[in-house]
Every structure is written in C-alpha cells, then in structure tokens.
Amino acid sequence: MTLLALAVTGRGLVDPGEPVIRADDEALLRGLAAFETLRVYRRRPFRLEAHLDRLFASAASIGLPQLERAALEDLVPLVLEAAREEDAVLRLVWTAGTAEGEAVGLALLSPVPAWIEEVRARGARAVSLLGVRAAVPWLLPGVKSTSYAVNMAAEAEAKRRGADEAVFVDAGGVVLEGTVTNVWWRSGETLHTPSLELGILAGVTRATLLELAPASGFAVEEGMYGLDELLAADEAFTSSSVRELMPIVELDGRALGRGPAADALQRALRDLTGTL
Fold this sequence. Notes:
It is built from nine helices and 15 strands.
C-alpha cells in the first residue's frame, strides 16, 4: 500500500515514511487493534460516521483502551488536505498501545487500487472456502480487527486456485461472507444476502444497498442460505466500501450469469456519492 498521507493522535500530520508504532504495541504483539477502511469521493469520506460507529463497537468488543472519538475525527481533514486527492482510500486504525501506555489512533490515506475497475469490468472469479461461523462472543462476531491473517490466507488460497475472491461457508455449507466483503445474489427480482445473525460483518456498503435496492426495483431477503442456493442464482456479487459492488461471474468453476442488479446498484451507489 502506498501512503499518500498519515496522521497520528497526539502528533498530527507526520511524514508517511516515519515509524509511528512502538515495537511493544499490543497491536503488533497480539493483534489488539481495530480498523475501518472507507472510500473518499471528491475529497469527502463516504459515511464516515457509520464507520466510526463500527470502529468504536469493534474496539469495545476487543477491549481496547479508551480513545476519544474527536481525536480520531480530527485526523481525517489533516490527511485529506495533505494529500489533496479527489478519490482515495481512508483507513482509520485504533491500536491498544503498549501495556503501560495509551491507545494510538492513525489515519492513513492511500490511492484506490487500480485493479478494482479492471476486475469489475470482466467480473470476479470466486471459490468457496471453509470458514468459521462467529456464533459466540469470543469469536468476535461482526468485529473488524487487524487480526486478519485468516482472511489474507484465504485470499491467497483463492488466488492460488486462479480466482480473485474467496467466499466463506461454514461446515454445514451455509454461506457467510467474503474475505473482505459481503455476499449477495439475485433470484428473479429478489436479492438475497446472509443475515447478520450469522456473525458476519455488518458492512456499511451492505447497509447502503439495503436502502438503495427497493428504488432499483429489487426486494431484499436476509437469512441463512446454503451454497447450492448461491450457485443456482441468476447473478451474484459482493459489496464493500473500497471495492463497491463486484459482480461474480464464476464460483467454484461454475459460470454465473452477469445480470442487471449489480450494475444498477453500482450506479445507484455512485449516484449517492455524487460521482456518477
């Protein structure tokens, strides 16, 4: 990831090449940190408040030391002004700090990865991989922490198999989510997506699509679905803040149709951000 700008609580804007995390920060030693990643459109972070709400919920679940919300919010205009990028990716990170110290907040601004539009144009290939259903609190359901090794390993395995993305399913074949995305599919005029009761991440873009779908002519049903239902869909796609909507044209080697829902909702999302 190329850093365009970096700001740290208590210090303000710092050089992107300067080290800002101590070697004994609990985030580094034990993965005790939470983060949020969101898109910036025309120098405006999209749904920043919703992302901050989820960040604070994640921090509470992990038990991170207190960090003032205003301290994190104040970092955002610093990196936006320093980089002066119209469209970018904003990442907010909340680390536990050292065992004796205070929590650390970071705001990082980076370019939007170029591969996203290339893959969206052709459609993504995906494979299903075994995932764990976060059904109990100590599995941190819905928490976005930096303990992301399993997700990155799954993404690497998907690429090893010639795919772009992995879709997690539990041992019973229930569809959960992507490595960094929520999963959707269309049957007729109805969109289906796994329920938050399965312990998946409550994606901010997922919530946005729930708002946008009716105006685009689609009903939405949330529930517990098997992989066979996804494979039998008329079309499928994923959603995330950075990747937005990504059509899935192949899953486990089976071709999936590219239909109207993903494109219509992508246009609706861009219209909402003012970048259509």
